[in-house]
Amino acid sequence: MEKLSSKGMLIGIDRDTQAIENAKLRLKQYNNVTYIYGNHDDIKSILENLNIEKVDGILLDLGVSSYQLDEASRGFSYMKDAPLDMRMDEASSLTAKYVVNNYSEEKLDQILLEFGEEKFSKKIAQKICEARKNKEIETTKELTKIIEDAIPGFAKKDGHPAKRTFQAIRIEVNNEIKPLYNTIKNSIEVLKPGGRLCVITFHSLEDRAVKDAFTDAQGKCICPPDLPYCVCGYQSLGKIITKKPILPTKEETDENSRAKSAKLRIFEKS
Fold first, then answer.
1. CATH number, domain at 198?
2. For residues 142 and 30, what is the distance between their CA atoms, to the nearest angstrom?
């Protein structure tokens, strides 16, 4: 494998310090990689601190990583018993344990419905609040049992009953959706003309936010068709390259089953 050209630089940004250490190990043969402990939501300020005005391309790989899911101690997985945590950045203060034990029933219902698209959000929120009256909910196993008891038997055939709730709590803990629209727009703005932004999403909420941001960035003239020139003042930042998202091939999903839900969308800066 050839080393990166000395004229270029690869900037890797992650809020998980372990992910950065893993990347340093895997990319140790390359001599022009800059590792940043931070959040892609802050891409503009990160580039400013590096004295970089524009970049050639950006890849955003959203969501939780396989390492985080497989490392039981991080508390992301409903398949492994561990303390309720779910923080991508272990220096942040908000944990899954705090969300589960301190959010109101109404707030829990809201995030389970909004971020997990959970049909039984109200019942699960109710059961969580009932359970925590007796003792604090501390582990993924305890939370999974509560969820399983809250969901009717017929609904358990549609994947693991805790999947959507764990997703919702994880998104809340890490604030994954709310800043995403602006992150996409900011990423496009720091691209050089002809530069491309590639975004990989793993669930519908992420994909919807990316699609909406791409559509708005591309823009559309809303002037009546009979006008000789545009007066609405619309501005386009570029064009959407992928009218439909690129999906993984069978070979990719055979090698990595978690890739099944992946979608890739691409935008080119004008």
1. 3.40.50.150
2. 44
- What CA–CA distance (Å, rounded) separates 192 from 260? 32
Name 14's bridge partners: 37
Which residues touch 142 (CB under 8 Å, ≥6 apart)? 131
Three-class DSSP category at 46: helix
Residue 155 · residue 119 · CB < 8 Å: yes
- Output the six-digit token pair for 100: 């589960």
Q: Rounded distance, CA 13 to CA 38, Å?
A: 6
Q: Indicate the SS3 state at residue 243.
A: coil
pTM of this structure: 0.90
Residue 50 has which token pair?
């590096």
| Strands 263-269 vs 238-240: parallel, antiparallel or unpaired | antiparallel
Residue 5 in domain: no
Can you tell me whether residue 200 is helix, strand or coil?
Answer: strand
- Residues 55, 191 contacting (CB under 8 angstroms): yes
Q: What percent of the chain has pLDDT over 90?
A: 84
Give the full edge-to-edge strand order of the sheet including 55-61: 55-61, 191-201, 263-269, 238-240
Contacts of 53 (CB under 8 A, 6+ apart): 47, 190
DSSP bridge pairs for 12: 35
234 and 149 part of one domain: no
The DSSP letter of residue 145 is H
Domain total in the chain:
2
CB 129 within 8 A of CB 108: yes
User: Which residues constitute the domain of residue 169?
Assistant: 71-174
Q: How does pLDDT run across 45-82, given as a tens digit for each residue?
A: 999 999 999 999 999 999 898 889 889 899 999 999 99
